[in-house]
Every structure is written in C-alpha cells, then in structure tokens.
C-alpha cells in the first residue's frame, strides 16, 4: 500500500466533508457547545449509522465494516477540520481495547452495539495526581471474583464518561492490572461532567465505590499499549485535519485583508509564518500517512510510527492554532471568530491521551533509546 | 514482463556489472572531487553506450527517447550504487534540459550529444557577489560587438567551474529597462583566456565551489539561449530543473546529524538515559522520519501524475531546518568538548559547521518560504518595489 489516498478514502473523506458542511458547520457547532449537550445526538446518529463511522474499523463479525485504520483516519481528518463534537474517539478507543483483549463474550455483547451507534463506550484509565495517561500501577482496585467483582477508586479525564452507556475501567485486581466493564447504571458509580477548556470535547471525573464490574479476559497491559497507538493515530488524524483548516482559513484571510496598500499575505512577516504552518502540516500529515500505512500492513512498526506522528501533530497544531489567532489580528481574538475554538481544541488535544513528554518518552521507549 | 520491467532488469544487470555498490557508511565528499575526472568521463560514456544516459531525451540529440517511467525505474535501481557521475550532474540536470527546451536546433545538435556521452562538462553561472536571493539584480554585462557579445563581470558559487568546458551564463544586455527584462542567457566557452576560475573556500575549510571572473570574454551571436532580453525566463526554466534535480536525489549517506548517529553519540557520552536528551532524540526521529515520508508522498504523487509544483521547496526548507535543529542537539550532547574537537568528533563537528550551508545553498530559507507562500499557498507576491524601475536607476549591492 502506498502513502497516497485510495479512491475509496477520497470518496469517504468527501462524503464526511459534505456531511460536515451541510449538517454541522462551525456556526452549528457553536450552538451545540453553547447548550448543555456534549454533542448533537442526531448528528452522531447519522455519523455512526448512515456514514458507518462508529463501526468502521470493527471487524464484520462484530457488526462493523472491517475497514482499515487509513480509512478511519481519512474520516477523522474531516471531523477534526470541522471541530465536530462527537463520542467517536471514545468509541474507537473502547472498541480498540476490547478487540485487543481475549473475551469473546464481552466482544459479542458490546462491539455490535458500539458499531451501530446505539452504545457509547468510554475508557477510564487516568487517575488523580498521576501525570501518566495510563498509570503503570493504578490505585483503583478490583476485589472479589467471578460475578461478585467490585471496583473502588477514582478516574479522571474520562472522555465522554458522562455520555457513555458502558465504561472500560483499568484497575488492579488479585491477578494484576486488568480492564473491567462497568455499566453506567451500576450502583456505587458516580460520574461528574468536567468543566473543560475545549468545549468540543466532553470529559468526566468518575468515582467508583464498590461498583459492580466484570473482568474482561486478556492481557490488559498489551491491550492498553495498543489503545495508546490507536489514540495517537486518531488524535493525529483529527489534528492534521484541524491544522489544514487553520492554514486554509488564515491563508484566505491573508489574501483579502489589506494593510499599507497590500494584502497582508504579501508581507514576509505574514507569508513566512504561513509557509512554516504549511510545513508543520505537511510533515505531520506525511508522518500520519506512514503511521496508518504501518497500522494496516506492518503492525510491528505501528507504535513507533503512531507516536512519531503524534509527536509532530500535537505541538504543530498548537503552533498553527496560535498563529491563526495572531495572524488574524484583533478579529482573531474575538469570541465571534472561530479561531479561539481551534486554539482551545489544540491546547486540550496536546495533552489528550498523554502529553508531549509522555509521547516523547513513549517514542524513545519504542525506538529502544 | 512489461517493457518497463525488462528495462529495469537490464539496468540492474548493467549496474551490477559496471558500478560500485552504494556504501552507506562512507563520509560526505566535502571537496566534491573524490572521483578522478577521467574516470567520471569514462563511466558516463559507458552509461551512454549502454543506453542509460539521457533516458527521456529525444533520440536525435543522443537521448534514448523513453518515458518518465523508465527514468524512475533507472533511478530506483541506481540508488543502490555509487555512480561516479558527479561532474555531469549539473550539465544533465540544468543547462542540458534548458537547451533542449529553449535552444536552437544547431545548439541542441552541437551540445547535447557530447554532454550525454561524457565528452564535455557544463557549469551554471547565475549568482553574483552582489546578487544572491535577488539574482535578477545581476551586474555582469554583455555588450554587443560586430560579431557577437563581450562579457564582463563576476559570478560566484559555481560548482565544477574548474573542470567545465561550457557554462550557461546570464548577463545584463539592457540596463535601461526593468531588471527582469534586460537579461540574456548565453553559452560561454570556459576555456576562453578571459575566464578566470578561483576556488571558493567556505566555512568548513573546503572549496566545493568557485568564483569565476569574466574579462572581455567574447561569445558569438549564436551563443544566445532563447531570445535576447528573455534571459530571466530562461533562468526560471533552468531553476525549475534544478529543483527537480535536487528533489530526485538518491539515497543519503549516513548522516552524522541523523538519528542513528546522534543516538550513538549520546551513548558514547553516557547520556542515553538522560530524560531531556532522550526526548529530543525522539523528536529528531519524528522529524527525520516525517521528512522521509514527505519525500515519498511527493515521489508517489509524481508517479501518479499529480503535479508537485513548488512543494519541493517545502521539503528543502524542512530539511535545512532539521539539519540546523539537529546541529544544536549534537552540540548539547557533546557539551564542552565541542570546543576541543578531537578525532572521534571530527565528522560530527564538520557536519555542525556545515549545517548553515544547507539553509543558504539553492535558495535561502527565506526565499523558500516566499516560494511556499506564493506558489503553494497562492499568497500575493512580495511588494517588489523595484519591479518597474529601470535597472540603471536601482540601488545595488556592490
């Protein structure tokens, strides 16, 4: 497989782009995030159902489309470019974890419902006071066995925790670190929606006080390592889309905004920053293409390639979003302009599923340095 | 087997028999003269006789008359070998294609076949001491005589001038019109007694380029490439070919500022467990591998018929920035020993000293940013306040 998009990927991207433009353009996103819902339920139903994005990379035997990571990446780029609020990332990570485990019953029960968009899954790993996204030794504990397992502890920054029907919780049990399914309706489970910087993403703080849970059989450490790769792929995809949106928006403005008798893009102070933004995008984009290629045909290289893509996309997007505000001048700092939504999305995205230090350490580990 | 596959197999077989395998660990050829000239000429002739020189050039001018697919196939196979064709790179990459595109029938017949078969070497004479990024402000003059033109002035950064037989030069033929309009391109005989070539020693202590002085150098009327006064357009054609030549570059020598080398350097200094160093090495890997992937994306798009336009400038800029960034990291890994140098640090220190060159050669980073901004993003051109002023009224660097 090559690094350039297939006709199918181009067509999928075009379909998602058209949907975003028609159903959830930025003025609409602004309305949604101004309300009390984390996302527009109807938009999510269409994305999950009609466009099939919730189950895109879930194998057909579990109700999905069995598509490639490169296909999913093409769709996520468009959603990232439009800052579309949705629980897709949370679902991708939850489904990805389940698929990496060995619990056939859990897979058959949960995956088809995620694939059809009927169920939102949320992954709960991070804990208060621990900077690592996935703690090596979680404080959350699992006690009991068989049907009588309960969890106690606290989890933070749980993406779409408040909207999820099921949580996949990392905890330390008698046999070591495991992943446990907890129903949203479970007793002893408290989910509190967080006040967040980035209004396009919803996260929650979760406390478990003897909440009934079910251990998902399989190697949780390996599954979470796989999830970290999938998170890097998905977030880098959204960020590459958003970076291109920032670049396009600012380039267009530099062509129509006049100062001192010239379009501002004629001046090197503006032009050179835009050229640098182009390169930040072009290199992150190329690294992402290499990472999705590795995911689909050379899995041994996925960890390195996905961490490399994320190591470029997160700081690259943050710089691009910041420059987008700055190059727009005064108007870029108003609430009315969209630039601040990208900036906030970039700030939160920079630390989502592991901050820059975490990603660089992870990449160095994968490289054997 | 398709005809391309057959061509590729034939090229592979010939290369295995006649060329040395690529040695990744070999150092850079800092002088640009590691291979004896006669060996280069012999090899180029053999390449031509075997049907692998001028692959896409028309047969009537000594080429093979084949397509881009054959050229790409040959280049891919050749990447595994060290071809001693360095002295011909400029002629085949810039003056040659320009003469093919703009030259007269007589010029093509006279100059292209001897270039392809390794008999004559070419150089390119554009930059001047007072005209670098703004090449169009050049001050070398060509004045009309009864039989042709008389060239006077100085050129700089000329690769291979010391062994070239011919050069393509741009000179001012009309100082009364705007700077871009009064320039003409000529073919000049580098053996003329009025041509003086001096090696140009650069920051590394090596002399990979030359300064070339022209004192009353006569060229005949039929030495003009294209039209009189249209030399800027001809130069643009040639620079476009330069970028293709640079962009087509084969495999890299093991880079003393690359990820593998700097990991080794960090290990040798006991810094491989230092958190800050590990993180910077990770970023180096990410940037280096992304640049490689970007090159492959451009290559695949070219093969698929997608125009890459000026995106080669984006890659060139990224490469120059990465080298400077890696040079900073290398210095921090080495620490205070950098001031002393020492035998084990010779290669990496040379690369650190050479790094700024990459941000200047072939167009500075600022010029590349202009190109990306204007030709990739479509931003308005620089105000260019001197664009319509007659050349003889401009303020110039002298």
From TrEMBL, chain A:
Pfam family name, one: Acyl-CoA_dh_N
EC number: 1.-.-.-
GO molecular function annotations of the record: oxidoreductase activity
Enzyme class, UniProt record, top EC level: oxidoreductase
UniProt keyword Transferase, yes or no: no
InterPro entries noted in UniProt: AcylCo_DH/oxidase_C, AcylCoA_DH/ox_N
Occurrences of domain Acyl-CoA dehydrogenase/oxidase C-terminal (ranges): 233-367
UniProt keywords, alphabetically: FAD, Flavoprotein, Oxidoreductase
Start and end residues of each Acyl-CoA dehydrogenase/oxidase N-terminal domain: 6-117
Protein name stated in the entry: Acyl-CoA dehydrogenase family protein
TrEMBL record, chain B:
Swiss-Prot/TrEMBL keywords: Flavoprotein, Oxidoreductase
Domain of life: Bacteria
Claim: Oxidoreductase is one of the keywords in the record: yes
Stretches of the chain forming a coiled coil according to its record: none
Pfam families registered for this protein in UniProt: Acyl-CoA_dh_1, Acyl-CoA_dh_M, Acyl-CoA_dh_N
UniProt xrefs under InterPro entries: Acyl-CoA_Oxase/DH_mid-dom, AcylCo_DH/oxidase_C, AcylCoA_DH/ox_N, Mycobact_Acyl-CoA_DH
Domain Acyl-CoA dehydrogenase/oxidase C-terminal: 229-377
Record PANTHER family: ACYL-COA DEHYDROGENASE, ACYL-COA DEHYDROGENASE FADE34
Annotated protein name in UniProt: Acyl-CoA dehydrogenase family protein
Native species: Nonomuraea harbinensis
Lineage per the UniProt record: Bacteria, Bacillati, Actinomycetota, Actinomycetes, Streptosporangiales
């Amino acid at each position: 497989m090559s690094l350039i998009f297939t006709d199918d990927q181009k067509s999928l991207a075009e379909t998602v782009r058209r949907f975003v433009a028609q159903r959830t353009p930025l003025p609409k996103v602004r309305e949604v995030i101004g309300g009390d819902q984390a996302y527009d339920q109807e938009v999510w139903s269409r994305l999950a159902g009609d466009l099939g994005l919730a189950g895109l990379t879930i194998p057909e035997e579990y109700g999905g489309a069995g598509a490639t990571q490169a296909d999913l990446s093409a769709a996520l780029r468009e959603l990232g470019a439009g800052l579309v609020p949705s629980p897709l990332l949370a679902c991708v990570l939850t489904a990805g974890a389940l698929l990496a485990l060995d619990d056939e019953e859990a897979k058959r029960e949960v995956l088809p419902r995620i694939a059809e968009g009927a169920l939102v899954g949320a992954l709960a790993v991070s804990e208060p006071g621990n900077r690592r996204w996935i703690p090596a030794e979680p404080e959350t504990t699992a006690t009991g066995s068989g049907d009588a397992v309960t969890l106690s502890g606290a989890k933070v920054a749980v993406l779409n925790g408040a909207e999820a029907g099921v949580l996949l919780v990392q905890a330390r049990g008698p046999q070591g670190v495991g992943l446990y399914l907890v129903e949203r309706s479970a007793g002893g489970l408290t989910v509190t929606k967080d006040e967040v910087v980035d209004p396009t993403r919803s996260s929650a703080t979760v406390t478990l006080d003897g909440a009934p849970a079910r251990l998902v059989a399989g190697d949780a450490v390996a599954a979470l390592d796989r999830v970290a790769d999938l998170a890097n792929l998905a977030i880098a995809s959204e960020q590459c889309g958003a970076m291109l949106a920032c670049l396009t928006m600012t380039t267009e403005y530099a062509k129509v905004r006049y100062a001192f008798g010239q379009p501002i893009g004629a001046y090197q102070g503006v032009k050179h920053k835009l050229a640098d933004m182009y390169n930040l995008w072009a290199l992150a984009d190329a690294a992402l293409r290499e990472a999705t290629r590795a995911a689909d045909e050379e899995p041994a290289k996925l960890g390195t390639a996905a961490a490399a893509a994320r190591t470029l996309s997160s700081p690259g997007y943050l710089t691009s979003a910041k420059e987008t505000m700055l190059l727009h001048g005064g108007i870029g700092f108003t609430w009315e302009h969209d630039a601040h939504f990208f900036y906030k999305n970039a700030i939160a995205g920079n630390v989502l599923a592991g901050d820059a230090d975490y990603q660089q350490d992870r990449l160095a580990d994968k490289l054997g340095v | 087997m398709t005809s391309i596959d057959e061509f590729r197999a034939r090229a592979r077989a010939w290369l295995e028999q006649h060329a040395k395998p690529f040695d990744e660990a070999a150092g850079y050829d800092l002088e640009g003269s590691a291979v004896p000239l006669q060996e280069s000429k012999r090899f180029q002739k053999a390449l031509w006789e075997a049907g692998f020189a001028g692959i896409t050039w028309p047969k009537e001018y000594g080429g093979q008359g084949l397509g881009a697919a054959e050229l790409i196939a040959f280049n891919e196979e050749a990447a595994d070998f060290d071809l001693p064709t360095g002295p011909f790179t400029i002629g085949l990459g810039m003056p040659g294609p320009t003469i093919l595109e703009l030259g007269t029938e007589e010029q093509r017949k006279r100059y292209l076949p001897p270039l392809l078969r390794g008999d004559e070497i070419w150089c390119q004479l554009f930059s001047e001491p007072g005209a670098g990024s703004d090449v169009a402000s050049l001050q070398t003059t060509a004045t009309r005589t009864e039989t042709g033109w008389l060239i006077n002035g100085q050129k700089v950064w000329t690769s291979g001038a010391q062994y070239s037989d011919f050069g393509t030069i741009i000179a001012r033929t009309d100082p009364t019109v705007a700077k871009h309009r009064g320039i003409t391109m000529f073919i000049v005989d580098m053996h003329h007694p009025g041509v003086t070539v001096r090696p140009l020693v650069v920051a590394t202590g090596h002399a990979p380029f030359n300064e070339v002085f022209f004192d009353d150098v006569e060229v005949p009327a039929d030495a003009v490439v294209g039209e009189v006064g249209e030399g800027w357009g001809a130069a643009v054609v040639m620079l476009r070919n330069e970028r293709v030549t640079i962009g087509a570059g084969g495999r890299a020598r093991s880079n003393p500022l690359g990820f593998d080398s700097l990991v080794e350097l960090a290990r040798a200094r006991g810094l491989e467990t230092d958190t800050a160093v590990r993180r910077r090495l990770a970023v180096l890997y990410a940037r280096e591998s992304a640049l490689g992937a970007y090159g492959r994306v451009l290559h695949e798009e070219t093969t698929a018929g997608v125009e890459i336009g000026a995106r080669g400038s984006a890659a060139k800029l990224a490469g120059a920035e990465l080298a400077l960034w890696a040079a900073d990291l290398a210095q921090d890994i080495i620490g205070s020993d950098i001031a002393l140098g020492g035998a084990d640090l010779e290669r990496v220190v040379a690369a650190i000293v050479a790094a700024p060159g990459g941000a200047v050669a072939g167009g500075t980073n600022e010029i590349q940013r202009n190109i990306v901004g204007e030709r990739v993003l479509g931003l308005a051109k620089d105000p260019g306040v001197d664009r319509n002023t007659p050349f003889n009224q401009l303020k110039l660097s002298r």
